[in-house]
Amino acid sequence: MQLTIRATGDHVQVLSYLLAKNPNNLYERKHKGHFIRLFYSQFSEKEVEATIFVTPDPLELVKKQANTYDITHYINDREFAVSSIFCSLIRSSLGTALNGMPNKEYEKWVYYDFPFEFSFGPISSSLTDHQIKDLFDPIGYETTITREEIDYSIPIKERSTARYISIKGKTTLQNGLRQLFILIPVLDNYKHYYIDQKEIEKLERYGQGWLDAHPLREYILRHSLRFKEIYSLVNNQETNPNDTITPKQTKEKVRLNDLRYEKIIKKVQEAASKETIIDFGSGEGKLSARLGFVNGVKEILAVEPSEAATLKAKIRFKKVAKNNQFLVPTTLWGSLFYYDERFKNKDILILCEVIEHIDEARLPKIMDMIFHEYQPKMIIITTPNKEYNKVYELNDHMRHDDHRFEWTREYFQNWCTERAEIYPYSLSFEGIGEENEQYGFPTQMCVFSRKEV
After folding, report:
1. Least enclosed by CB within 10 Å: which of 5, 26, 107, 222?
2. pTM of the prediction?
3. Which residue range is the domain that position 33 belongs to?
4. 23-28 — which CB contacts under 8 Å span 24+ positions?
5. What is the pLDDT of residues 160-170, one digit of tens each?
6. Residue 347, domain CATH
């Protein structure tokens, strides 16, 4: 992962003083086991180009602290993509430039606008190229996005999903770096560190002079601060984050994930039998926490294979447990790939945005275990509607890098109907989210109800 800073024109050599890095030497430091290096590939009177890059230490990432970044570090690309981790590793190395504190004789150059080109990558982002440009273009940059050509020995794909971004514009070095340090984590929608009041102060400092005027300010704040309670301290209001970053959709649009939960909760409330519920793939416990307030529910099993997510779920449940009306869910390690007798004969089994994370070839065996062995009275399945991706301008991309597939409405309905023909269940379909006349709803849901035998 790397960031290249290139400037052209008069006086560009003073950038070495603003960066506090000698162009004749290779800068090299070790930070938390990772090597940070900076070198100048060009240093002339009219052009300066410096690259800072990080070489991660895979062993250090997991040694003694497997949960520092994520329990799924063994399949996680964050440590090798430009993200909040990258920014935190290079921050001290670029501290002089970020803080605008070179030697006194060069202080005036802190406020000098140079024609810059900042290039960085690889990035792993769920945002479309158009959405990425919406973040950089309003602050005066010309944005170029490229993908590497790849040549596998077997026909998998021709182009990498990782992207490289180059932005060109006239700005100060300090301002350009500060913008990147805010927007790079927004691109990735991921922060590995604890977010508190200091993060608000950093946003105010780094965003001074440009963030307040940005048309996507609210989106940037939400995805920088991550939590509504902290976001409201900055914005003095509580609003729900958007799924997309269209400027027109800032306050009134409810997050799609919340709409899914609301629809599922309604189905649970309407169910004749709802005493025992399994929330499979419960993640950080957001849905399970809401289920804990449904009248008539006596047992909730929050089943999740990720230790890190389960720990977050426990913290969530502990906070809500202060409410006497809340039924605390039971967190269990579990996987759809393995039979577990504890899941038999429950009233409701929920697969909320789960099946698309499983290889399609493995689904029949999993479904057979659910329908034939577990035999819940009701099964609720939600999954993305592939057709709706055109509304999001995703082109050929899926909504999440971990999705193994995304199905059209027709395919999903046929797949569910095949299950109902094999097992004694009736079924019904509904859409979730804002409906598009041509492409339907962003999320599709099927409810299986067991027939009396």
Report:
1. 26
2. 0.50
3. 2-193
4. 23/48, 23/50, 27/52, 27/93
5. 567 899 999 99
6. 3.40.50.150
